[in-house]
Design goal:
By secondary structure, the protein is an alpha+beta fold. The termini are far apart. It is built from six helices and eight strands, in the order αααβββββαββαβα. Strands 1, 2, 3, 4, 5, 6, 7 and 8 form an eight-stranded mixed beta sheet that branches. It has one domain.
Length: 196
């Protein structure tokens, strides 16, 4: 049921006092979160969003990892066990996994493709963008045939709060626990073979 128009908002005439920011200020005792700890339950594997400012972890980064990307309906990245890579060479690409954090505190892993082609500007510029965002805030976006970065105009962004309870190995495990191919009979590989 919709409220009558006159009750949807209060006009100046119906308010007894002026609504000010000071009147809505929250006491710092309420804003303090206390001893709560974030419990990260999943880590997405994705590219940085076009409009978000991110930082790469200053130290963490993976060696090249064999991966298979599947669109079903959104893109999912699966890590492939080195023991079976020779059996699925035509399906895998190699990626360096770069841990990232957004200004909102969202952690994720950016899979950056390793390419041997000299003219692969996407892979090269992605790694350059990740290096540029190492220890400093950057907005990373896809431009014309390459990634570019934007430095924030304000210096008010604080250092990221990486979850203290999460190591790089734990972050990687959360990202790929359900996206790990360790057998040639894995459902993703079966779909790629047409074995329904």
């Amino acid at each position: 049921m919709e409220l009558p128009k006159e009750k949807r908002h209060m006009s100046k005439e119906n308010r007894s006092t002026l609504l000010t920011a000071a009147a809505l200020a929250v006491p710092s005792t309420i804003m303090t979160r206390g001893d709560t700890t974030r419990n990260i339950l999943a880590v997405p594997v994705r590219k940085p969003g076009r409009g978000e400012f991110v930082q790469c972890h200053a130290e963490w980064r993976s060696p090249p990892i064999a991966c298979i990307k599947e669109r079903n309906p959104v893109e999912e990245v699966f890590a492939v066990d080195p023991k079976i890579v020779n059996h699925v060479k035509d399906e895998v690409t190699f990626h360096i996994m770069v841990p990232m954090i957004s200004t909102a505190g969202a952690v994720f892993i950016w899979p950056i493709r390793v390419s041997e082609r000299a003219n692969d500007t996407w892979s090269r510029s992605a790694m350059d963008a990740a290096d540029d965002a190492r220890g400093q805030w950057r907005r990373i976006y896809a431009a014309d045939r390459c990634y570019e970065t934007v430095k924030p105009v304000s210096d008010s962004l604080t250092d990221p709060a990486w979850p203290a309870s999460l190591s790089w190995d734990e972050m990687f495990d959360l990202a790929f626990r359900e996206h790990y191919i360790d057998s040639v009979d894995h459902p993703v590989l079966r779909r790629l073979r047409g074995d329904f």
